[in-house]
Automatic annotation (TrEMBL):
Keywords: Oxidoreductase. Residues 3-326 form the Aldehyde dehydrogenase domain. One of its GO terms (molecular function) is oxidoreductase activity, acting on the aldehyde or oxo group of donors, NAD or NADP as acceptor. It holds the Pfam family Aldedh. InterPro entries: Ald_DH/histidinol_DH, Ald_DH_C, Ald_DH_N, Aldehyde_DH_dom, Aldehyde_DH_Superfamily. Signal peptide: none annotated. This is 2,5-dioxovalerate dehydrogenase. Gene3D superfamilies: Aldehyde Dehydrogenase, Chain A, domain 1, Aldehyde Dehydrogenase, Chain A, domain 2.
């Protein structure tokens, strides 16, 4: 389907979706979840062949996808009204209600082909808000995207969902289309910035909610339980071949022995192929470059898992950049000044025990200023889909640090509040 046709259908359908009650949207999203679950035997093998991700990972991701559709549907059915009684001129009430923004452009992510893909969180939250969606499938998973799109298209009302495909020119055309009112994106910093620039250059600029690059630093304080911490971090670095947006990209420790143990553990983990040839080549290039400049402990295979061990005083430049793939930078030295050198991240983690409380207290303000989620004695991978979750962060992690792409608050990106002052009760929506 062309972008112009898809957007025209979305614009025509927008008033109908906006008029649906919360209960009707809940029914709609639950039906999508049921349809996806019923097609699991077709969806999972297709995604497995295109991505190289494991069967267990994809089965779990499909469960998450259906769960978040149901959860966002349930949230959409809850009353949303704020009332201040008798405060307006003449003693009238001020009532605030949510209004869908209109058609939303969603860009499917490659690293979560289901939970952040065609039928993922951005699509689910836009539909829950009452907005039709036009989704651009990821070119790395065309068959998976087409299959998911067919399931949603036959489950949702006509025009509520459309799927387009193509390269960068299609992406820009979609963002520039006059009927699109907001954008949801998960991908690279380069891609996200291009969409932001296109959206800002429109005659009527629109918001782009982009999740982009994130280092996700982990600070290991002296009291941390070493064997458990090493095991958890090695798994988090290499899981899904290091292609998670929350992968720990930097670990800071005061112990050289801990650094060596973690590096050996990372190098020992077998990993599967990466999502695309381009990602695999970038990982190999980073390994070669790091090996020429720093001490690297690497494992076997392609992609090879590896750790770059440096002194904390050397942290700068590419050592503080996100590198997709099963790799991590381990910095040895004091952690006190590290937060001030970091850019924004989705997460920051601290491993510690009771003896480290004062040191942790000193670190937390800097971490809070640079991350959307702080994890205590846990890895950042594995993001709970819940009311309180904040999956966002300061630039360059996201384009809108106050918003989240995970959890029920994700709906608020795609609806706006309207205050109704002094309206008769019988006219209130």
């Amino acid at each position: 389907m062309t972008v112009s046709t898809a957007v025209a259908q979305a614009v025509a359908t927008a008033p109908h979706l906006a008029s649906l009650s919360g209960e009707q949207r809940r029914t709609m999203l639950h039906a999508c979840a049921d349809a996806l679950a019923a097609a699991a035997r077709e969806i999972v093998p297709t995604a497995l062949e295109e991505t190289g991700l494991t069967m267990a990972r994809l089965r779990g991701e499909l469960n998450r996808t259906t769960d978040q559709l149901r959860q966002l549907g349930d949230h959409a059915a809850q009353p949303w009204r704020r009332v201040s009684a008798g405060v307006a001129a003449g003693g009238g009430d001020v009532v605030t209600v949510p209004v869908p923004v209109g058609p939303v452009a969603v860009f499917a992510a490659s690293n979560f082909p289901l939970a952040f893909g065609v039928c993922g969180g951005d699509t689910a939250s836009a539909l829950a808000a009452g907005c039709p969606v036009v989704v651009k499938a990821h070119p790395a998973q065309p068959r998976t995207g087409e299959l998911l799109g067919q399931i949603l298209a036959r489950t949702l009302p006509d025009g509520a969902f459309s799927l387009v495909a193509g390269g960068p020119e299609v992406s820009l055309e979609l963002v520039r289309a006059a009927g699109i009112r907001a954008v949801g994106f998960t991908g690279s910093l380069t891609g996200g910035r291009a969409l932001m620039d296109a959206a800002a250059a429109r005659p009527d600029p629109i918001p782009v909610y982009a999740e982009m690059g994130s280092l996700n630093p982990v600070l290991v304080l002296p009291g941390a339980a070493v064997p458990a911490t090493v095991s958890a971090l090695a798994t988090a670095v290499t899981g899904s071949a290091g292609q998670l947006c929350t992968k720990p990209g930097l670990v800071v420790t005061g112990s050289a022995a801990f650094a060596d143990e973690l590096a050996a553990a990372v190098a020992a983990v077998p990993v599967h192929r990466m999502l695309t040839d381009g990602m695999a080549q970038a990982h190999e290039k980073w390994q070669a470059h790091a090996s020429a400049a720093h001490r690297v402990v690497a494992g076997a295979g392609s992609p090879a898992p590896f750790a770059v061990i440096v002194d904390v005083d050397d942290l700068a430049g590419e050592l503080l950049e996100e590198h997709f793939g099963p790799s991590v930078v381990i910095a040895v030295g004091a952690a006190e000044d590290v937060p001030s050198r970091l850019e924004g991240s989705l997460t920051a983690s601290v491993y510690a025990d009771d003896s480290d409380r004062e040191a942790a207290r000193a670190l937390l303000p800097g971490l809070v200023a640079r991350a959307g989620r702080i994890v205590w004695n846990g890895v950042p991978t594995g993001v709970a889909v819940c009311d309180a979750m904040q999956h966002g962060g300061p630039w360059p992690a996201t384009s809108a640090s106050w918003s989240t792409s995970v959890g029920t608050e994700a709906i608020e990106r795609f609806r706006r509040p309207v205050a109704l002052q002094g309206l008769p009760v019988e006219l209130l929506p």
